[in-house]
Amino acid sequence: MISWLVAGIGDISSKRVLPAILSEPRSRLAGIVTRDPRKAEPFGVPSWQDFDLALSRCDATAVYIATPVFLHAPQTIAALRAGRHVLCEKPMSLDYAQAAAMAATARECECTLGIAYYRRMYPKVERARRLLAEGAIGRPVFAEATSHDHFNPLGTTRAWLADPALAGAGPLRDIASHRIDLFNYLFGEPARVSAHVSTLVHPFAVEDNATVMIEYHSGVRGVVDVRWHARPARDEFRIRGTEGELDLTPLNAPGLALPAGSESHPAPANLHYPCVEDFVSALLEGRAPRSSGETALAAEWVMEQSLK
């Protein structure tokens, strides 16, 4: 049985993370860290406002970090040094140096560090990965991922996303990070990065759009374009090869189009459940999680190169 301390009760935590832990049969919720203790009351477990105090008093085996990005590195490192395994929300941290420190601390403390890039666990992503390995589209040569919406966090509970000191960047870290990680998962180690990042529409200090081109050692070239100022909303993801194309558009829907026809591979209703389930299995089986601190470093490197 894996017992959990969850730090942060925002939208993702309350709608997905906590329900995933409560429904995972090998997991037990042991405590919550929140600035507002009233948010923890429905869960019937001890709660703390101070993260370090929670670490000293809670008997948790693992900690889920669901706080704003600027807290990811210090809280993850503190939890690892306290002998806890950690599953941290994405993006991993504010920058590559912090992410590398997190991964190094996990190795030093011999604890497991996972990063919640849950799209790696989409059934259709796994199916696409197998199809690529089987040569279903020949040699993959190009991939594109587009995520567009009209979003301004100012004046909402997510206003911290527009503060570079708290979020690190805008849509690059918030939504491109998922797609960059998927490219890394599918195509291997990134070799070179070029990017255009700017603020065109919204009145805040982070970028409101980013276009990132990644050249992989495998020869694949991938382009990720994310925007907080465009309509209509888009969620496109395509992989082109020498013999055809895989189309996962919309990425968050079950459809997968391939040269031989169309397939449907629905994800669970709770998108975080497979991520929590895989992390628990990794701990019990003594293996690395599918999305680990080590695998997430590649996405951090790409984003760091994009902001230079």
Describe it for me?
The protein is α/β, with parallel strands linked by helices. It has 2 domains: 2-118, 3-Layer(aba) Sandwich (Rossmann fold); 123-266, Dihydrodipicolinate Reductase, domain 2 (2-Layer Sandwich), CATH 3.30.360.10. The chain has helices spanning 11-23, 51-57, 72-81, 96-109, 123-134, 164-167, 171-187, 273-285, 293-306; strands spanning 2-7, 27-33, 47-48, 62-65, 85-88, 113-115, 140-150, 190-198, 209-216, 221-227, 229-241, 244-247, 255-258, 261-264. The chain has a 6-stranded parallel sheet, with helices on both faces. The protein has a 6-stranded mixed sheet with strand order 8-9-10-7-11-12, with helices on one face. A hairpin with a 2-residue loop joins strand 11 (229-241) and strand 12. Helix 3 (72-81) packs parallel to helix 4 (96-109) and helix 4 (96-109) packs antiparallel against helix 9 (293-306). The longest helix is centred in the middle third of the chain and has 17 residues, at 171-187.
